[in-house]
Amino acid sequence: MAAAAVVLAAALGGGLLLIARRFWQVAAGAGAGKVRRGMEGKTVIITGANSGIGRATAAELLRQHARVIMACRDPPRAEEAARELRAELGVCARGGGECRGELLVRELDLASLRSVRSFCHQVLQEEPRLDVLINNAGIFQCPYTKTEDGFELQFAVNHLGHFLLTNLLLGLLKSSAPSRIVVVSSKLYKYGEINFDDLNSELSYNKSFAYSRSKLANILFTRELAHRLEGTGVTVNVLHPGVVRTNLGRYVHIPLLARPLFNLVSWAFFKSPLEGAQTSIYLASSPEVEGVSGKYFGDCKEEQLLPKAMDDLVARKLWDISEVMVGLLK
Predict the structure, then answer these.
(1) CB–CB of 103/109 below 8 Å?
(2) Are 263 and 217 in contact (CB under 8 A)?
(3) Rg of the Cα trace of the chain?
C-alpha cells in the first residue's frame, strides 16, 4: 500500500509539474500577439507558411503590418490558411483600406527546380521590393524518395530548393537593402555529416541522418552566403526553433498504444508553433539584429556551433557543388 501511494503521489506530482510547465510556456509567449507597426511597408516571403511555425510567423509579421507572401506547395491548403488569417487578423488580400497588412498566396514546390524558377520569375515580375526572405519549409525523416530532378527528397527540399530560391531572389533583396534572409535549421544538425561522395544518398540512406545532413547544409549555406553578401546591406542568419508540435513529424511512426503518452509529453514539453516561431520573427523584424549576419540563433539569442558547422572550406565546396546541382552553373 505504501509503495502504491508513493507511485501515485509521484505520478500526480509529475502531472502537476507538466501542467505548470505548459502554462508557464503559454504565459511566456502571450506577449507575442501585441500589435506593432515595425514591418509596415515591408514585403516578406515565407516558405511553408500554411501551417506550423511558418503560419505562426506569418501571423505575427502581419500583426506588425507586413506584406506577407505565403510560398506553399499546396495552393488549396494555403488559400484556406490565408482565409483564416485574414479573418482572424483583419488582413487584406490586396493592400488598401483599414486592413492590417496584406497577405498573398503563391505556389512553390521546393522539391521541383522548375517550380522554384517559376515562383521566382513571378515574384520578380510582380514585386518591386523584397525586404525579408524566410526559408522555413522543410520535410522530416521521410522514406527514401527522389524528386523529379533526381535528388533525394530531404536534401532537395531542405537545402537545394532554398539554395536556388535564395540565389534567384538575391538581386531583388540587394536592391531593397537593408534586407534580411532568415534560414530555419535544427539542433539535429549535430548528427549530420556532409559526405561529398554521396550527397544524394544513393549508396546508403538513413532518414534521420539525411535530415541532419540537410540541416547542417542550411548552416553551412548561411555562413558562405554571409561572406558573399558582405557590404551589400543584405544579412543572413540561421536558427533552430527547438522541439515544436507541428506536422513536420508526419513520417515518424508512433505505436498506437504509445500515442496518448506521446501526446501528453509533447503537450507538456514541446513548444507550440507560436513559441517555435519567436526566433524567426525576431530575426525578421527586430532592430536588435540590424546588420548582424552569419550567426546561429536559438530562443532569440546567439548560440555556439560545433566546429563542423563552421568549416568554411566545406561550406565553400558545398556551395560550388550546389550551384551545379541546381543548374546555376553548368
Answers:
(1) no
(2) no
(3) 21
Per DSSP, 151 falls in state -
pLDDT tens, position by position, 169-200: 999 999 999 999 999 999 999 999 999 999 99
Q: What is the pTM of this model?
A: 0.86
How many whole angstroms separate alpha carbon 103 and alpha carbon 116? 20
Q: What is the pLDDT of residues 69-127, one digit of tens each?
A: 999 999 999 999 999 999 999 887 765 555 668 999 999 999 999 999 999 999 999 99
**Bridge partners of residue 183, in order along the sequence:** 135, 238
Please say if 191 is a catalytic residue: no
Q: Residue 72, SS3?
A: strand
Cβ-count burial 25-63 (b if 16+ within 10 Å, e if not): beeebeeeeeeeeebeebbbbbbbbbbbbbbbbbbbbbb
Q: 144, 189, 191, 211: which is the annotated catalytic residue?
A: 211
